[in-house]
Amino acid sequence: MISKKFYLFVFLSILLLLFLFKKNMSPRIVVLISGNGSNLQAIIDAINSKTLNGQIVLVVSNKDSAYGLTRATQAEIPTLIFPLKPYKDLGKTRIEYDIDLAKKIKEYNPNLIVLAGWMHILSEEFLNLFKDINIINLHPALPNQFDGADSIKRAYEAFKKGEITKTGVMVHKVIPDVDKGEPLLIEEVSIFETDSLNDLETRIHTVEHRLIVQCVKKILDELNH
Ligand code: GRF
Fold it and tell me: Alpha carbon of 10 to those of 21, 23, 138: distances in Å?
């Protein structure tokens, strides 16, 4: 006679298989970072709380010192350190670097690539290898304002000179030009007379953490339907 324990075992096994199948089927995200990885963390947290129906299959950093790598390891996400320097030392080009990086990422079969603090421009050669998926970048400024590095500091200084009254955050599609490409989400951020640079940075990062999750959700929802 088959015992109740056996039925329970079969039932739990089916649940486990369904869970693993669903996890394997959820959209695959690769995140590229260069530093702290607080935006990576926002995505990890949103996946863990089921706000996002996706999985991060790889975190790539061009710097081995990036704290985001620790965050990824803590979340049991595979990591890849892929620095440019060895390429430069061998006299290889940026395009060669980008193509090798693209090949490594392709092995993980992503449905979405998120640049979250990635400090390299991606060349056309890289982007051409991912024509059928979204590649998005998070930038702490409004479109066409303060492209490139130190955007928050430059916005703060412009505010102090009376040149601007507000700044913002955007998530945009990636093209082979710094912080350009069609904006997908934009949010304005106020600057106040009493703000220190640190105050503004904190306010902007808070918006970034929300906006990057919102944009990833928008893309994943489209993929899931
Ligand atoms: C963010 O401000 C992002 O907009 C910019 O680089 C910073 C990365 O922060 N491109 P973190 O590494 O996600 O904490």
Answer: 16, 20, 45
pLDDT digits (tens, 9 = 90+) for 150-177: 999 999 999 999 999 999 999 999 987 7
Residue 63, token pair as written in the block: 């710097």
> What does 172-215 look like in DSSP terms, one character per residue?
EE--SSTT-S-EEEEEEEE--TT--HHHHHHHHHHHHHHHHHHH
In this prediction, residues 182-189 reach a mean pLDDT of: 97
Asked if residue 16 has pLDDT above 70, the reply is no
Q: Say how many Å lie between the CA of residue 4 and the centre of ligand 1.
A: 54
Atom of ligand 1 nearest to the CA of 119: 10
**Atom number in ligand 1 closest to CA 137:** 10
Enumerate the active-site residues.
Answer: 139
pTM score: 0.89
Note the pLDDT tens digit of each residue in 76-125.
Answer: 999 999 999 999 999 999 999 999 999 999 999 999 999 999 998 899 99
Nearest CA to ligand 1 atom 1: 117
Q: Dig out the tokens for 219 from the structure.
A: 């893309």
Task: Give me the CATH topology for the region 27-224.
Answer: Rossmann fold (3.40.50)
**169 alpha carbon to ligand 1 midpoint, in Å?**
11
Ligand 1 centroid to residue 12 C-alpha, Å: 42
